[in-house]
Design goal:
Number of domains: 1
Family: Belongs to the DsbB family. BdbC subfamily.
Shape: elongated
Number of helices: 4
CATH topology: Bromodomain-like
CATH architecture: Up-down Bundle
Structural class: mainly alpha
Strand order of the largest sheet: 1-2
Number of strands: 2
Pfam family, one: DsbB
Organism: Rhodoferax aquaticus
CATH class: Mainly Alpha
GO molecular function, one term: protein-disulfide reductase activity
Strand content: under 5%
Membrane topology: Multi-pass membrane protein
Helix content: 55-70%
Distance between the termini: 12 Å
Largest sheet: 2 strands, antiparallel
Length: 143
């Protein structure tokens, strides 16, 4: 097993759990996602396939392709988290119609909101991918 493969596997596992959770909330619990949640889903869902293929083939290019999705998702999740915390003015809320991005009705684990979990997932994936890419750097003499 090549060095760093476990980092890639952990990133894939987190993306898979986050995708399964988002699909469960939408399809089983029938919760309609807000605009910011949709943007986070757009960033998270492709990473399951990209990182899965990268794990299977043990090829570092999958991490290179997944890292922009993780960074973009991290930005949206961070903005959503700040919005829920009340640190972003309500005039900057992107949802004009439909489900409000500023109001969350579901809390898990005693008060943890969904955007916080999304921010943690994107943050962990980003850190794992950066560590994996550093470990498997082409300039690294160990590879």
């Amino acid at each position: 097993m090549k060095s760093g493969w476990m980092l890639l596997l952990a990133a894939w596992a987190i993306a898979t759990m986050a995708t399964a959770g988002a699909l469960f909330l939408g399809e089983v619990m029938l919760m309609t996602p807000c605009t910011l949640c949709w943007y986070q889903r757009i960033a998270m869902f492709p990473m399951v396939l990209i990182l899965g293929m990268a794990c299977y083939s043990n090829h570092r290019s999958g991490a290179v392709y997944a890292l922009p999705f993780a960074c973009i998702g991290l930005v949206f999740a961070g903005y959503h988290t700040l919005l829920l915390a009340g640190w972003v003015p309500s005039a900057w809320v992107p949802c004009g119609a439909g489900v409000s991005c500023a109001k969350q009705s579901l809390e898990l684990f005693g008060g943890v909101q969904i955007p916080w979990l999304s921010f943690a997932a994107f943050g962990l994936i980003t850190v794992l991918l950066v560590c994996y890419l550093k470990k498997t750097s082409l300039c690294n003499p160990k590879n």
